């Protein structure tokens, strides 16, 4: 490597760290409100805001309050909100038909947000787990998660979400072939502008625990998701999955979880240069909140540093439960 700084004592790296002004001037990466996608939990009822115990600071909101929260997020400049439904156990079935009910909780929330906050982009989740009696993202037949039948169901779910007004479809199921099938169906139905943000490299992670509480899937889930979510030891496989999903028609790709997988983010960004996102998942959020509540870390500083790290790793944006708090801080 050619020297890019004169040898000591003429060259001193500390000169560039001497004040906030100089540090700001030489900073390579910054976090802005444009980088945020806010995941939210929706439940039925009216005027309800109920805390999620394993995610301090996160609530499940009824549709009316989701619409209000989306309007506030829009006012703060948050570009996108991502919906996850807490489905009543009585609506969970073997065939998961509630998933493509045009009037299910998630689709009602999309319409309510579009009315209250027309400028914020609405992202959805495509997977069967909120509607499945056994908590899996795909159909279970004789103890196995079946791929192709699941993809057919996911396509119906996608079309119902697009009809309701979703801007960005977020398949989080990890079935093979779903991106191509969804893209084809969207095109055929005239939804040319609906984007797909593929959860392309989604690992079988223990960091999703608090989320499964939040959507009420923990009790339902039988077994684990290792036959469809990725093996945490793999890195090359992530690149092959991202390439496959981009080829099938994904507009944007996601790596999930976030902080433990920043090496994957960097490889993906460097290899494809596509719009790349990471999901700072529930367990990552819970760890930061728990340590902060105990006074063991400075929660605000750790939050900002953790999110900046995603930018440094090459991400264009981050799905984070911290989104409104960060947006408020960045607004000053
Ligand atoms: C399920 C889904 C999960 C998350 C988003 N969509 C959990 C899972 O795969 O079991 C996790 C998000 C989080 O932990 O914050 N389709």
Mean pLDDT, as a whole number?
A: 96
- Spatial separation of the terminal alpha carbons: 41 Å
Question: How many discrete structural domains?
Answer: 1
The CATH topology assignment is TIM Barrel
CATH superfamily: Aldolase class I
**Overall form:** globular
> Could you name the CATH class?
Alpha Beta
Continuous helix count? 11
Bound molecules: ligand PBG
- Please tell me the CATH architecture by its name: Alpha-Beta Barrel
- Estimated structural class: alpha/beta
Strand content: 15-25%
Task: Summarize the helices and strands and which ones pair or pack.
Elements: H1 20-26, E1 36-43, E2 49-51, E3 59-62, H2 63-75, E4 80-85, H3 105-116, E5 121-123, E6 140-141, E7 144-145, H4 147-164, E8 168-169, H5 178-188, E9 195-202, H6 209-214, H7 236-248, E10 252-256, H8 262-272, E11 276-280, H9 282-293, H10 299-312, E12 317-320, H11 323-331
Parallel strand pairs: 1-3, 1-4, 1-12, 4-5, 8-9, 9-10, 10-11, 11-12
Antiparallel strand pairs: 2-3, 6-7
The structure holds ligand PBG.
Ligand PBG binds next to helix 6.
Protein described:
This protein is of the alpha/beta class. The chain contains eleven helices and twelve strands. α2 (63-75) packs across α3, α4 (147-164) runs parallel beside α5 and α9 packs antiparallel against α10. The two termini are 41 Å apart. The mean pLDDT is 96. Residues 125, 127, 129, 137, 172, 208, 211-212, 225, 281-282 line the site of ligand PBG. Belongs to the ALAD family.
